[in-house]
Amino acid sequence: MAKLVLLVITSVFLNPLWAQTISNDLFTKWENENRVECIIVMNDQLDLYDKTNGMTKDEKATYVYQSLKAHSAQSQRLLQLHIADKGIKHHSFFAFNGMQAWMTLDEAEYMASNFDIDRIIPNVQTKVERPYTNGEYIATMRTDAEWGIRQIKADTVWEMGIRGEGVIVAGQDTGYDYDNPAILTKYQGYSSDTVIHDYSWHDAIHELNPMHGDSDNDPANNPCGLDSTEPCDDHAHGSHTMGTMVGGNDTLKIGVAPDAKWIACRNMDRGYGSPVTYTECYEWFLAPTDINGQNPDPTRSPHVINNSWGCPPNEGCNLDNFFMMETVINNLTAAGTVVVVSAGNDGSSCGTISNPSAIFENSFAVGASREDDTKAGFSSIGPVLVDSSYRIKPDVVAPGVNVLSIDHQGGFNNWGGTSMAGPHVAGAVALIISANPDLAGQVDVIKDILKSSAVTLVDDAVCGDISSMDVPNFYYGYGRIDVLAAVEMAMNIPCSVDAGDDVILCHDLDESIDTLIGQLLTSNIVSHTWTTDPSISDLGNITYASDMLSDTTILNSEVGYLNDPKKTFYLTGTTSTGVTCVDSMDIYSTNWTYTSQEPISA
């Protein structure tokens, strides 16, 4: 026995460190291939999820993009020099700190031994889940909105004049048939004169997916080709999802937010993708570029991204690479973008929500419901067991059975799946932001609104210690979305201002008055006015902005309050939806200033 123990201990100490860094799956691949596609994960990862509170959406996106770019450039600098010197084909990522590289075993061993690398893993290939088909539908003249839109009351929101205007929705999927009339005019790059694809489209498919077994880029097999410079769909799945988000016209009402604009990224080659293609699309959404991949601009990032795909363990996604997409999603959330994810179609038992990206805390996972407000039989159920988190998912459910939308050949189809439910929620996010633009970038608040306003749904099933009679539960989350209730809640978020404490001056000196100006729940700014009467704007309007943090407004003798022993000033705040609030302060002074401070939050 002692000899056996000694042998085991000796074998552990003889195991080289680089072997612990490289995935066992790669050694199997190198037995048959000289050069293998790998993902290099650096040790030093940057997660900015809670670092952007109180910023506007553009400020969040810019801060996150610049921070991630600087961090990855510094962390990868020596490794990139080595890879370039060796002529190794590679692509660097910043949304998570890592690279895609095609390496031999010797090259991987050297890098694992000499650079600050956490792990080297394979880039697995995955495929889109096939929707449940209800047969082809030939659109006829009709004026009623589709059943899913009516059930979530999006059509009632339209009657309020709220249709998604000013909001950018995004999708990453099999591609998009952008010139289909139902979505063409909603494409961000569209105008009546021309179509410009800069900042509206990116193709993450640069290589033929090996799952298809073809070695040449034959249009007969691969109609979209590689690196497409305009939106293209070789599968129909992506087009169908975009139709549910924004599609339709005067006689065909299939999209939840018909006045929103859309941008997109192709992450699958004829239905097959990989962690690298998904990550490349996520990264592009952080800072969209022109069609040549240049001049990234984080202020053009979308408000919401729909993801109707999954990466199951039997296709290679596992605990070794879960963190990669989770880090990217956390950083997108920090950048002010809502990430909506379909829960999956694995159905009837507890714990079947098990695939990225639906399993992550900051993903907004969506299950599928029927017209009678029961769960679709195929819709996956929580809790999340695969990472031992026991996390409650889905977050909500939405219509996902017999959903009419467009296909990739100019026609229409009725499909079912959580892939069809997710776009309803992405469209709902667009309507919420359109109703209250102050909510742009306020991801957690938008999620809370969707949950709080949902129609409660329960089931008598039990998963673990949680009954599905509880809310939230593993069948329906917080319930089926109600867009009308969500929009009404968004439009009535309370306003809050704090004029500061009363100020008494014993001498004729300037005095600085600290004010807190903000909006409860969102930390968003409000327009505010200082007056000596709540009904009179005699001191003018001042709009608070981040670049005014160091500004000082001086109110002096021109205001006409010299030698007044006491004056009451009122600070009136007004949100973008017209909600007002007032606070007052008393001051004795002949000459005084006030300085805007950080906005308050709940």
Short overview:
By secondary structure, the protein is of the alpha/beta class. Helices cover 26% and strands 20% of the residues.
Task: Walk me through the structure.
This protein has 602 residues and is α/β, with parallel strands linked by helices. It folds into 3 domains: 26-123, no CATH class; 127-207 and 223-491, Rossmann fold, CATH 3.40.50.200; 496-596, Immunoglobulin-like (Sandwich). It is 26% helix and 20% strand. The chain contains 14 helices and 26 strands. It has helices spanning 2-14, 17-21, 24-30, 57-86, 105-114, 147-151, 154-159, 181-184, 237-246, 275-286, 319-334, 418-435, 443-452, 483-491; strands at 36-42, 90-93, 98-103, 117-122, 126-127, 132-137, 168-173, 201-203, 261-266, 272-273, 304-307, 338-342, 364-369, 396-399, 403-406, 412-416, 462-463, 466-467, 496-498, 512-518, 527-531, 541-543, 552-555, 567-574, 580-587, 592-596. The strands form 7 sheets. It has a 7-stranded parallel β-sheet, with helices on both faces. A hairpin with a 2-residue loop joins strand 17 (462-463) and strand 18 (466-467). It is globular. It starts with a helix and ends in a 6-residue tail after the last strand. Residues 1-15, 135-141, 505-523, 535-563 and 589-602 have low confidence and may be disordered.
In total, the number of strands is: 26
What is the count of distinct domains? 3
CATH homologous superfamily (4th level) name of the largest domain: Peptidase S8/S53 domain
CATH topology of the largest domain: Rossmann fold
- Biggest beta-sheet profile: 7 strands, parallel
- Shape type: globular
Radius of gyration: 27 Å
Strand order of the largest sheet: 8-9-7-11-12-13-14
What CATH first level of the largest domain would be assigned? Alpha Beta
Mean pLDDT rating? 83
CATH architecture of the largest domain: 3-Layer(aba) Sandwich
First-last Cα distance: 63 Å
Helical fraction equals 25-40%
Q: Low-confidence stretches at least 5 residues in length (pLDDT < 50)?
A: 1-15, 135-141, 505-523, 535-563, 589-602
Taken as a percent bin, the fraction of beta residues is 15-25%
Number of helices: 14
SS content category: alpha/beta
